Every structure is written in structure tokens, then in C-alpha cells.
Amino acid sequence: MSRKILAANFKTNHTRASTREYVAALDAAMEKMGYGGETYIFPPATALDRFETKNDIRVGAQNAYPTVKGSFTGEIGLEQLGEFGIETVLVGHSERRHILGESQAFIAQKYAWFKEQGFTIFYCIGEPLEVREAGDEAVRRYLVEQLEGIDTAYSKLILAYEPVWAIGTGKTATPDLIETTHAMIKRFSDRPLLYGGSVKPANIEEILSVEGCDGALIGTASWEISSMVSMLEISEKLKTKN
Ligand code: PGA
């Protein structure tokens, strides 16, 4: 089994100071466990920075506006990201779709723009509970709509399947459900596909062992450094075990 991709999404948590401490602790822990791969963190915009690390810790933006600069109050663009050498962005997260009201058309525009800039794009899709309850065909249709306008062959795309009902709820999708949904999504893209939704130290081994699961996008359980380090350790052991 090759190394899985683990990514931490801080959402609206951590400050500039605590992010700095977190990255230093993560770097030290990766050094200690001899973690040879890369890991991603998405801090809030106020904590974006260049971090001097010995290990491959990539910092991404949770959101950005598809512009170099301009009049988009409250947003950040390429110029602001460029100051810190940031070349990774999260697009299509369910909280931006459902709480901030981003449409598929806008998400696709953002995706195309950051693709044009050569960014690594973590692109999230996932169905709400009522769609899951309506059955597999309804889920398939919903997810296909979330891929509308998205170049799924883009070489720097990392997909994340995050069922909305599993995000921040403590409810994780079962391995079977992850496997069948991932198989369905993989018909549309051969890019790495992560699972997200209440991933934590207690279930990450089972999730990463699912056929077709290339890693995890972790919210809540990534905010505590010790919990993130445990998950990296589990992932690393899994890699050497198989
Ligand atoms: P969660 O969030 O791990 O808190 O469920 C996942 C995500 O939103 O990426």
C-alpha cells in the first residue's frame, strides 16, 4: 500500500500563533516517526504564512477568490497567496456550498481559474442526508452535478468525497459505503480520492484500508496536534504493514 494523503482542515479554528506552534510540533513529530511523505494543512486565512520546516508540510488556503487582486471585500486573491508561496487551495467544501451559498457555476469558475494558475486543488463533493436516503442513483446524480464544469483529469487535482451528514457530526460513513461511492466517483476521475467526514484516530485505520480510498481530509480531529500526529502514525504503519 502506498502512502496515503492526509490533510488537516482547520476551518475557523486556530490563530496565527497557535498555527505556528502546530506546524512546529507537526514537523518535529514527522521527523521523529521518519514520515517520508507530504502532509497538507489548511489554516484560516489570517494564519497563512511561509513556514520553515524540515518535512514536507504543504500549506493551503481554505478559500480564495479567482482574481490576482481587485475589489472583492473580504476575499483574498493570488497576490495575497503568492506572498507566502501558497499554491494549494480547497474548492467546493460543503460549508462553502451550503453555509456560504456558493453555486456550482461559481465553484467551477474558481476551479478553472486556480487550475490555470497551476494550483494543487483539493476539490470536495458530497451529498446531504436526504439525498443519501433517496438511494444510490440519487447520490450518483447529485455527485455528478457537483463535478459539472470541473476538469477531473487535471493533474494537480485531489478529490475528496465528504458526505455532508458525516461532516462534524461524529457519524462516519461505513467502509462499504465509502468503497461503493469511491468506486462510482473513480469512474469520472483517476486522480487521488480522499474520504472526509468525522475521520479520527479511532477510525482512520479502517477508513484508509478501504479499497479506493487514497487518504483523508480531516476537520475536527486534526485541530488537536496529538490527534493529528496519531493519525499520521497510523497511516505510516499501515503503509509499512502492507
Ligand atoms: P470533520 O470535517 O472531520 O470535522 O467531519 C471534515 C471536513 O469538513 O473536511
CATH class: Alpha Beta
CATH superfamily: Aldolase class I
Which distinct ligands sit in these coordinates?
2-phosphoglycolic acid
Q: How are strands sequenced across the largest beta sheet? A: 3-2-1-8-7-6-5-4
Low-confidence stretches: none
Order of helix and strand elements from N to C terminus: EHEEHEHHEHHEHEHEH
Count up the domains: 1
Note the total helix count. 9
Strand elements, count: 8
At CATH's second level, what is the architecture? Alpha-Beta Barrel
- Kindly state the mean pLDDT as a whole number? 96
**Termini separation:** 5 Å
User: Main sheet?
Assistant: 8 strands, parallel
Can you offer a commentary on this structure?
The protein is α/β, with parallel strands linked by helices. It has one domain (5-241): Alpha-Beta Barrel (TIM Barrel), CATH 3.20.20. It contains nine helices and eight strands. The chain has helices at residues 16-33, 78-82, 94-98, 104-116, 129-133, 136-146, 175-186, 204-208, 225-241, and strands at 5-9, 39-42, 57-59, 88-91, 120-125, 157-161, 193-196, 215-218. The protein has an eight-stranded parallel sheet. Helix 1 (16-33) links the parallel strand 1 (5-9) and strand 2 (39-42). The protein starts with a strand and ends with a helix. Residues 9, 162, 167-168, 196-199, 217-221 line the site of 2-phosphoglycolic acid.
